[in-house]
Amino acid sequence: RTIQLRNEDLLAAAGQVPRGPQEDAGSSQGDCTV
């Protein structure tokens, strides 16, 4: 996982950003970088 995705995980853990199946499936692609 990239640093950005780890950041997303931290936000998701805080309950600010809901994690979707796409993030789990394409974690290496980083679809949240857009």
**Coarse morphology:** elongated
Q: Quote the distance from N terminus to C terminus.
A: 16 Å
Q: Based on helices, strands and strand pairing, what is the structural class?
A: mainly alpha
Count of alpha and pi helical runs? 2
Low-confidence stretches: none
Q: How many strands, what sense, and barrel or not for the largest sheet? A: none
Question: How much helical structure, as a percent, in the residues?
Answer: 40-55%
Tell me the number of structural domains. 1
Q: How many whole angstroms does the radius of gyration measure?
A: 9 Å
- Helix and strand pattern: HH
Approximate strand percentage: under 5%
Q: What is the number of strand segments?
A: 0
What's the average pLDDT? 61
